[in-house]
Amino acid sequence: MSDSPSKTTRTLYLHVGHRKTGSSYIQYCLAASRSVLESAGIDYPISGEILQQAINRLPTSGNGLELARALKRGDRQVVRDHLLTANSLDTLYSAEQLLSVLSLPAAADLLFSEAVHAQIDRISILLFIREPVDHVVSAYGQEVKRNYGTFDVNIEDYFAQYNQPAKVFAALEAFGRWPDLVSMEVHNYSRCTEDLADLCFHWLGFGALGERGPAPQLADSGESKQVNRSLTVAEFEFCKSLMEMGMKPNRLSDALVSTLPEIRSDLFDHLAQLAAPQIARLSTRLQPVLNRVNPLLPAQARYASIAHPLTLPVGNSSGIGSAKMSGEQACGPSDMYGLNAQQIRVICDVLTLDGSRRPQRFWMPALTWTLQRIAALRAGCRRVLSPRPSRR
Asked: pLDDT tens-digit profile of 253-275?
């Protein structure tokens, strides 16, 4: 039985992402602290399979994906089922898809009206945003890693379609229509990557001055906070080669990320260098949106100017820009563009056992081509003479 202090109000807590702002790590923290949350009066409803995946530091969609889907399709009964509870505990949902869904006025109004029906007195929303250049480069890498169906979109088109700050603006406007019900806490992920757990638990009322007591202590608090790392350049290029051969790389990328979580990603600088012209155009296109959304954000979380987001030196023999945006770790030049023995072992294990039972002759050309390409990149070449492998 919960030993939380008696209270007369019920709160719905929503961690809404957005994408590529540490959601997997936050969901790991929440899953690992579920019993502490319940003892403090917060219900974090989650299925056993998703709970185990989160505790094992595997990427999940959190416990709020079904709520987000129901809101998007306007399913009032499913939304109501998520909000009604047989106990008096506060309820917590986490899903990075919630922000995009709640940027739709009809979905936001459905959630907020049903919360009133469920006798929820307060909705507290935790939102992490991310600097646009930092975010779009990382999101493009994630598209390839998870193969969301946009693998045929090149990096130029992806940058041209990017509109995350506009979604943030739409969601903030929707939240603002319910000022007596909704409160928000917003942080800029690009400036607080090392504080995600502390910020999340403080939002929930934990901490030295929190009403729920000290923040939960994670058993592995001394270990790396990295969950769902980005791919390295070589891993990224190999996954793209597989996609161009008609193979989906998500099983391989999941295996690389979960089996070798300690490998630091060097992908950000690589993609930022390739997309330097698009980054310049991004500034002109997004600045009007940033001018509209920044007044709705707390001062410490506002988007910075992206007029000159990166310094990309010309003639760098490694092909790498010297600047790094926060949130992405990079290896030193000697570690760039390489596949070590562990990575190759994972690649061979996964693809040999691929569900399609493709023999090595189907994917070995992609690996060979990737090794040739990364050797050329290491040497500073911008063109690769050997063609990409064709689908067979």
From this structure: 888 988 888 888 878 888 888 88
Nearest alpha-carbon partner for 337 in 360, 349, 351, 320:
320
Task: Label each residue of 102-117 as H, E or C.
Answer: HCCHHHHHHHHHHHHH
Q: Which helix (H) or strand (E) holds 184?
A: strand 182-188
pLDDT in tens, 120-160: 999 999 999 999 998 998 888 888 887 755 555 678 888 88
pTM above 0.85, yes or no: no
Which residues partner with 183 through β-bridges? 124
Question: Considering only CA atoms, which of 209, 201, 237, 167 is closest in space to residue 377?
Answer: 237
252/363 Cα distance (integer angstroms): 12
| Domains in the chain: boundaries | 11-134+163-203, 233-378
The winner for highest mean pLDDT among 62-66, 268-272, 376-380 is 62-66
The CATH fold of domain 11-134+163-203 = Rossmann fold (3.40.50)
Residue 199 · residue 324 · CB < 8 Å: no
Residue with the two structure tokens 């001018």:
291
Residue with tokens 């130029």: 156
Give yes or no for a contact between 225 and 262, defined as CB atoms under 8 angstroms apart. no
Three-state SS for 207-263 is: CCCCCCCCCCCCCCCCCCCCCCCCCCHHHHHHHHHHHHCCCCCHHHHHHHHHHCCCC
| C-alpha 231: how far from chain center | 13
- Phi then psi for residue 162, to 5 deg, are -65, 130
Contact between 228 and 257 under an 8 Å Cβ cutoff? The reply is yes
Torsion of CA 37, 43, 46, 48, to 10 degrees: 60
* End-to-end Cα separation, the chain, in angstroms: 60
Residues with Cβ within 8 Å of residue 103, at least 6 apart in sequence: 167, 168, 170, 171, 174
